[in-house]
Amino acid sequence: MSVPCVRVSREEGEATRRRLAEADLVDDGYDITVEDGALYVPVTDPSAVPDTFEVVGFDAPVREGQTMPADRLGFEPSYERLGDLVIVDEDDPDRAQRVADAIVASDLPVEGVLNRASKIKGTERVRDWEILAGDTTEVVHREYGCAFELDLAEVYFSPRLATERHRVVEQVTAGERAFDMFAGVGPFVVPFARQGATCVGTDINERAIEYLRRNAERNGVADRVTAVCGDVREVAAEYAGWADRVVMNLPHSAGEFLDTAVELAGDDCTLHYYDIQPDTDPFGPGERAIREAAEPEYNVTVETRRTVRSYAPGEHNVVIDARLRR
């Protein structure tokens, strides 16, 4: 059966496997295989694989002795792994339970199975979950060498954005001052601090801030992370002109906070602005909004326009990296 695999040369194989393992992307249900001088590493989520790697379909053998969910169901179920939890999205309760039972009975290393029971809702961007197996919605997720403790029932977190977060993290240099306006449990802030940046993260969700503080401790960067619970618009005055880098990952309404982002910006600041727009003009509205908020106080240079992922038919989740120079 064809499964998504990263294809690299044999010489690059071990370094590639380690990097994918750090991002929790290696699919342990299949063997890593060498064929015609290339090494094929099975991956759990091809959309989360960094763009620098080539993802191909390859007939990777099922790991000997392992039973996969499809072996018990007779079809390939759709699921997503987050730490030792598995997430499914099934509307039919009977089918959902069948899938969960097959996952638990398989040889996948899982502690529980959750089914999405609602869409993301409210200002804290959480959703309801149905526990199909196990007894918790709390998990530890590993991503590019960092570990994040979180409770899916209480905070927003998307493992599908791992590649995008890593893209931004690689731009950070030691000594920077970085501000995440909607920090959640710290998937930007914590790796920024590991790069040597001094970081501030704000969020209106008190539980998210609690997890952010725990994750800063867990990853050994608590001395470089300040976590603040509250509306960033009420916090910004304390950090006016402070930031060398500002992250605005609130795609549906980030535009409402651009004046605050400009208030936070120092003399030379990179702004990572996330947006959801139609494919007819995915970047124009965001660019115009950034310029309206920042000019003429700042010269604005758009350095990156990137589609992060498809959001809905005809709509895309995009990011604009804009350089603001006073």
Automatic annotation (TrEMBL):
Report the InterPro entries cross-referenced here. Answer: MeTrfase_TRM5/TYW2 (IPR030382), SAM-dependent_MTases_sf (IPR029063), TRM5-TYW2-like_MTfase (IPR056743), TRM5/TYW2-like_N (IPR056744), Trm5a/b_N (IPR040601)
- Alphabetical list of Gene3D superfamilies matching this protein: 3.30.70.2580, Met-10+ protein-like domains (3.30.300.110), Vaccinia Virus protein VP39 (3.40.50.150)
Gene Ontology terms, MF aspect: methyltransferase activity
- Which keywords appear in this protein's UniProt record, sorted alphabetically? Cytoplasm, Methyltransferase, S-adenosyl-L-methionine, Transferase, tRNA processing
**Do the record's keywords include Transferase?**
yes
Q: Which residues form the SAM-dependent methyltransferase TRM5/TYW2-type domain?
A: 79-326
GO biological process terms on file:
methylation
Q: Which Pfam families match?
A: TRM5-TYW2_MTfase, Trm5_N, TYW2_N_2
On whether Thylakoid is a keyword of this UniProt record, the answer is no
Name-wise, this protein is Class I SAM-dependent methyltransferase family protein
This protein's species is Haloarcula saliterrae
